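G.,

No rush on this.
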Amino acid sequence: MDNSTIEISERARNFVLGALESEAEENLGLFIEVSGESDGEYQYDLYFQDVNDKTMQDTVYEVNGLKVVIPSSSVKKLSGAKLDMSDEQDDSQLFLVNPNRPTVRTLSEDMDIPGDLSSPEALKIVEILDKEINPAIASHGGYAELVSVDGSTAYVRMMGGCQGCGMAAVTLSQGIEVAIKDGVPEIEDVVDVTNHSAGTNPFYASSKK
């Protein structure tokens, strides 16, 4: 299958075609796009729209009578994804299985980092790191520290066994970032400023060829 297309199961195709039959407009297609990010995962929008509204850069294809449009900004993010239906008989729903995840933003340690540690948001984050995150990753010989808060962005550094760890991005996106955003709603972005190349005792080292 072309990397610019999404695989669509027969059940999902039949469900969408059935829904299209109730639409009055003609030439409608299923638009599938990435609408944002949340807790280390992509968020999606699936909707019907006139296929002629596509742009020249969008990917358009047909699956046994179902016209599908993927906006150009979402093509790479949805590469290798599959649209399917859940197995619940009474409440079957469409869902996307996507092997891709948002890229964790990082900065090098020698860059100037704006903001400070005196804001109420910063104090809340320090408390979350001390009480929730660090006790959990201490068994790996690691800990996380808040470097700075600038507006809605928190800058975090991972140390000890987390520095240079091949699973550090997962720890950040699925653990630290989620805890901070849940506990401090004012924070919209968590940036890793760790110099992972300097890690001397990573708990989990990426394999090298």
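When you get to it, here's the other one too:
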Amino acid sequence: MRLAPAGSRGRRGLSLVEVMVVIAMLLVLFAVLVPSLGAILGLEHRKSALRLTMLYQQLHDEAILRNVTFRVAFNLDNNTFDVQVGQGSALVFTDPESKEKFDEDTKRRVALMDEKELAEYNANQQPFEKLGAQFQTAFELPNGQFLGGVYTPQYARMVQRGEKRETGADDEPLIVYTYVFPSGISEHTVIWLVDRTGADGFTIEVEPLSGNVKMTGELLAWDQAIDWIPDEGPDLP
């Protein structure tokens, strides 16, 4: 006769019915928690979209009060953006062709400068710098939310996350700049904040003349967002 090991009497494994009951309970718990988790993530994504909307509104007011130009740099590779400040006057182009022509003219002028002229030219440049410690200047999006793309007239299209660079080295970060001016005018900007699929998210639009900021709970095509504007760069008499 075999004796059961000490301490093993009265022990038994789970029956098949008990295992099935436990699995059923876990499935019910999972079904309850997953929508809640999705709702929490959706709330976080909405909060970050609201934060970006409020940031542009704050920059609009601060630019007027301090007579400075703010530049928001969107790093589409690192999924971050930060705020920089420069002097009241800043050169911004209405289309890519104007910027390309200006860069070519500048290169020709710089090539003809002597050492003294070049030093004066560099001293007169107006770099953008980070704000003081009293302002939050660097921002990251929550998990599962991404900078899908940014449009401004100087790019003439929606520059999208993950796209191939037209200029510069492939290892350079893909950064898009937008501007807020002390005159109360902002550069017209359309921003996509997307989920992991890239098919759903928020559209944030900064209106150029008033500086007002609108947030929409869907992804609008950049040319759809600007339908109300007759011309991005109207000809002035």
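Residues 62 and 154 are 23 Å apart (CA to CA). Residues 16-66 form the longest helix (51 residues).

Enjoy the weekend,
O.
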